[in-house]
Task: inverse folding
């Protein structure tokens, strides 16, 4: 019986690593493409900004000057978008150490509970009773978890309030963190695209569409997985998974995936 259970766990871990590798390859290719586009677009944008400034400085016609100002401002907005894109894909140095997921989330939970009291949003934390150590960068994990909580808060704001539930649990050699809300949910046609850079359903011009894509990037660099799904009872759940800090030797390495792929055939 134990042998069968061990084999099932091995197959589950292998499938997760395969999914992790597939996500990494897709977004690495997308990142290279978009970074190249951003660099190419920045050059003509620089020329537009420079010459529009020169023309405005030497133009006497108020109407023409106003038109040049519009051109200049739109070019600046495009340049900011390109800068955001380059910053998003720029590799930052991480300060990796062993962290206790429950402790990281507990601090953030109390902070967001205080913020949400005036918004008719109730937060609940279902904390796993055991230790859940992971290898990670505290700053990036705080950014990841904050983004997912704020995403749930914004969904609930559309319905005038509601409930957010954070859950931590262990599944084999993996730590799972679930962010659930009882808001309007995610339109089914968006579920496969919400982690793409610049994909957003928000109307605000200031929104860059990089929030959930940044979450995906952080999770991927931590050798983890992230997915979103709608709840049967309404609302949505985002699930994040990380390998346990001491599990790397027991989870199939990426270079071994092809050798053992028959396990999941």
Result:
């Amino acid at each position: 019986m134990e042998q069968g259970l061990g084999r099932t766990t091995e197959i589950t871990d292998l499938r997760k690593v395969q999914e992790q590798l597939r996500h990494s390859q897709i977004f690495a290719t997308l990142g290279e493409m978009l970074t190249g586009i951003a660099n190419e677009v920045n050059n003509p944008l620089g020329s537009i900004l420079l010459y529009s400034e020169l023309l405005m400085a030497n133009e006497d016609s108020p109407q023409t000057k106003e038109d040049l100002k519009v051109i200049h401002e739109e070019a600046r907005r495009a340049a900011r978008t390109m800068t955001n894109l380059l910053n998003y894909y720029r590799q930052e140095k991480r300060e990796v150490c062993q962290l206790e997921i429950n402790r990281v989330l507990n601090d953030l939970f109390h902070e967001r509970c205080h913020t949400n009291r005036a918004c008719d949003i109730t937060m609940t934390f279902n904390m796993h009773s055991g230790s859940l150590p992971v290898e990670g960068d505290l700053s990036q994990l705080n950014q990841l978890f904050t983004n997912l909580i704020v995403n749930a808060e914004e969904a609930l704001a559309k319905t005038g309030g509601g409930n957010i539930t954070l859950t931590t649990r262990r599944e084999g050699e993996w730590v799972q963190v679930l962010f659930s809300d009882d808001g309007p949910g995610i339109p089914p046609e968006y579920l496969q695209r919400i982690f793409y850079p610049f994909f957003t359903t928000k109307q605000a011009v200031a929104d860059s569409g990089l929030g959930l894509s940044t979450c995906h990037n952080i999770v991927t660099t931590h050798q983890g997985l992230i997915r979103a799904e709608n709840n049967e009872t309404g609302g949505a759940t985002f699930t994040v998974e990380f390998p346990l800090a001491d599990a790397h030797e027991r989870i199939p390495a990426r270079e071994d995936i092809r050798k053992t792929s028959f396990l999941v055939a």
About this structure: The radius of gyration is 22 Å. The longest strand covers residues 162-171. The longest helix spans residues 2-57.
